[in-house]
Specification:
Layout (H helix, E strand, L loop, with lengths): L17 H15 L7 H5 L25 H10 L3 E3 L1 H10 L4 E6 L7 H16 L3 E6 L1 H6 L7 H18 L8 E5 H7 L1 H13 L3 H5 L15 H16 L4 E2 L6 H13 L7 E4 L28 H9 L12 H14 L2 E3 L9 E3 L2 H10 L4 H25 L1 H12 L5
Parallel strand pairs: 2-3, 2-5, 3-4, 5-6
Antiparallel strand pairs: 1-6, 7-8
């Protein structure tokens, strides 16, 4: 049952120059201290990170994780990942450590879509319900390295604060210290003597072709023309895992390669306890062939503050061929958002078309959809109703809270760059 890590090896290439790294690091530190860029901690002081009512939505985590057995904790945590490397290590960790550290991170790079908002909330609440502590790395420096928001750190940090407002509104369980938001620029500056030698050691031990295979984590390919900063990025993200003392890397499947790099680094330095990789599913875009939801095509993405009518139109136009399950994004929404949130899927239709039906499992939906008993014309409105119910508290928050409303206005006014 357990999957084995296949360690990749490089037969060619060359190590990074320490001189290049030192120069790059110096540039980063200089940029971060520019006078016109306000430290995120100062602007964050006005944000109240109050916990949401655990009863406000079914995705909220429970406070009774201490009553769970190791087997129950394993089942909950494992359910978050589409893939886990290694399951035996995960079970052993949950058996011995009351509060494992789970690392997740994001580049503040524009408006938040439903995969970043709702799916992340579901996953975080599952992890904390099983007793994990989740460290969410607000990767502002990384977004700058990757030229997001034109490399403007002040804009990037505004987007980061907007993200936090969304997670508060949608129902991420922030009670106590179960979830911690950490700004990369602030944390790295405060512990620079610990961070940069680690980055340099990771770079020194890896050939350039090995690092180039990790550029997928930035939404890039090995064929792209990359800046020196973007080549530095994978070494830094690998270092983050150890810097944050993470037991579990809980990121998307698109981040898998750098997480594997971290396990390989443990082999290089003879470290016994390797980070466990728990990679979650990537929600596809709504149009045919869009394997990953992208902000670059608004018609294929649902944003967290989209109005009800916008959600209805986007779902109505979504790719959803009758009787076809594979590659059908509408069914992905049901499986990865609606069922985890509501534990059911409700379809309202006229009596002549089968009447109202409440599905209690995703397998039931698949069976009826394949047979043709459930038609796209009934499926789509049901999806839109469920999503709008989830998103309404977010809309209310951004309409009624002056700070949140201002953040959204500013983010919408920014030009998204790659």
């Amino acid at each position: 049952m357990f999957q084995n890590l296949v360690k990749s090896s490089d037969s060619c290439g060359y190590t990074f120059s320490l001189l290049f790294l030192s120069a790059s690091i110096s540039c980063l530190l200089t940029v971060s201290m520019e006078e016109n860029q306000i430290p995120p901690s100062q602007e964050m002081q006005s944000l109240s990170v109050n916990s949401s009512d655990p009863n406000s939505n079914p995705a909220s985590s429970s406070s009774s994780s201490f009553q769970l057995t190791a087997e129950e904790r394993f089942r909950i945590v494992r359910s978050v990942g589409e893939e886990c490397i290694q399951e035996d290590e995960l079970f052993n960790l949950l058996s011995k450590k009351p509060q494992p550290i789970c690392y997740d991170g994001f580049e503040p790079s524009g408006r938040m879509h439903i995969a970043q908002g709702v799916m992340k909330t579901i996953n975080v609440n599952q992890l904390t319900s099983a007793g994990c502590k989740v460290k969410i790395w607000i990767a502002d420096w990384f977004a700058q390295l990757n030229n997001k928001m034109g490399g403007d750190l002040k804009k990037i940090q505004t987007v980061g604060r907007y993200f936090i407002e969304i997670w508060k509104a949608v129902g991420m369980d922030l009670e106590g210290d179960k979830v911690e938001f950490l700004w990369s620029s602030e944390e790295i500056n405060s512990r620079a003597s610990e961070y940069w030698p680690l980055v340099m050691d990771i770079a020194r031990r890896n050939k350039l072709p090995r690092i180039m295979r990790c550029v997928q984590i930035m939404g890039r390919s090995e064929q792209d023309e990359l800046s020196a900063a973007q080549i530095l990025y994978p070494c830094m993200q690998c270092a983050d895992i150890f810097f944050l003392k993470a037991d579990i890397c809980q990121l998307g499947m698109d981040q898998r390669k750098v997480n594997v790099l971290a396990r390989e680094y443990c082999d290089d330095i003879k470290r016994k306890n390797k980070p466990i990789i728990l990679s979650h599913h990537m929600l596809p875009g709504l149009q045919q062939g869009h394997e990953k939801m992208s902000k670059s095509d608004p018609s294929s993405s649902i944003f967290m503050e989209d109005e009800e009518a916008e959600v209805n139109v986007k779902i109505k136009k979504a790719y959803c061929p009758p009787n076809i399950v594979e590659g059908n994004p509408c069914l992905d929404y049901i499986k990865y958002i609606i069922f985890p949130w509501f534990n059911e899927f409700k379809v309202e239709r006229s009596a002549e078309h089968g009447g109202e039906k409440i599905f209690k499992s995703f397998e039931e939906v698949v069976t009826e959809y394949k047979s043709g008993e459930l038609h796209p014309g009934d499926l789509k409105p049901a999806i839109a109703r469920a999503l709008n119910k989830i998103l309404q508290p977010v809309r209310d928050h951004f309409n009624n809270d002056a700070n949140a409303k201002d953040l959204l206005k500013r983010v919408k006014g920014y030009r998204v760059t790659r």
